Amino acid sequence: MKTPIWLAVVCLAASLPTQAQTFKPIELNDQELATLRGRYVMPGRIISFGIVMTSTWQNASGEVIGATSSMQIQQSTLTPQFYVSMIDEKGNGSASSQGTGTVIGGSGLNSTEGVTQVVRAAGDKNTAYNNVDINVTKASQAPATQQQGQALAPGSTLVNANGAGSLSVSSTGTGVQLNIVANNNQGSTQQRLAQGGLMQNTTLLGNSNRVSNLTSLNVVLRDNVPTAGSLNGNLDQLKGLRTLGF
Predict the structure, then answer these.
(1) Which residue has the higher pLDDT, 185 or 236?
(2) Among 14, 75, 82, 112, which residue's beta carbon has the most beta carbons within 10 A?
(3) 176, exposed or middle or buried, with CB in 10 Å at 0-12, 13-18, 19+?
(4) How far apart are CA 140 and CA 156, in angstroms?
(5) pLDDT tens across 207-218, in order?
(6) How many CA atoms does the CB half-sphere of 96 hold within 13 Å?
């Protein structure tokens, strides 16, 4: 009973134009998908681009060490520049005991790409938080900003230390990196933004520590269409990031 219907469908398909027959879905492999970056905007629409990175370590006594590294790029920016504000807070509890945990392996983490977030714990009552925010807003003009903290020159390192541990913030040819090594073998944490990738890596060897790695990427887009002559106005500022390793 159904044979005439299927026969009609086959005949109809055979009568379609050749162009319609050759248009078939194509499956993309992983290498091809890796080259697709989603939506894009013209450089003239980006009127402000900012990065804020914060890493903190709080030990069992409540003492905190950390830093915030930030950079804001606008049309008036001549050279991209990171600024660092140190975080140093005293505690009110008892001193941390010596950490006795052991974590092995992890050498492959140095060769990852994209966003990598890692927490490895060998202790008790610890809290570790890794987070990345991408905030896109629209405005008629770039927001007024005033950089806070000490300038981090390319190739330089800023350091700090207290009862919680030691901190270093470095700017090299491969990007910006925040490192904290906690006292009393409590562990360490690293946050690195470089070569198109972000690493947030925490190792906990003791007890009752609170660790946080946060990165925010903030983009402000012009809410009106720019003129043809201004399309390259902000592209040059973003090109300056290449010298920092991004």
Answers:
(1) 185
(2) 82
(3) buried
(4) 36
(5) 999 999 999 999
(6) 31
Alpha-carbon distance 197 to 112, whole Å? Answer: 8
pTM: 0.76
Return the C-alpha torsion angle 19, 25, 26, 30, nearest 10: 160
Task: Tell me if 55 sits within 8 A of 130, measured CB to CB.
Answer: no
H or E element, residue 10: helix 3-14
**Ranges of each domain in the chain:** 39-90+114-244
The torsion angles phi and psi of 166, rounded to 5 degrees, stand at: -120, 145
Contacts made by residues 198-201, CB under 8 angstroms, sequence distance 24+: 198/114, 198/115, 198/116, 198/132, 199/109, 199/112, 199/116, 199/118, 200/116, 200/117, 200/118, 200/130, 200/132, 201/106, 201/109, 201/116, 201/117, 201/118
Neighbours of 104 (CB within 10 A): 7
pLDDT in tens, 55-112: 999 999 999 999 999 998 887 777 788 999 999 999 887 777 888 888 888 888 877 8
Q: Which residues of 27-36 are buried (b: 16+ CB within 10 A; e: fewer)?
A: eeeeeeeeee
Up-side HSE of residue 227: CA atoms within 13 Å toward CB? 2
Q: Which two three-digit tokens encode residue 217?
A: 């990427």
Main-chain phi, psi angles of 61, to 5 degrees? -85, -5
Which helix (DSSP H) or strand (DSSP E) does residue 22 occupy?
helix 18-22
Q: How many CA atoms lie within 13 A of 189 on its CB side?
A: 34
How far, in Å, CA of 135 to CA of 155, rounded?
29
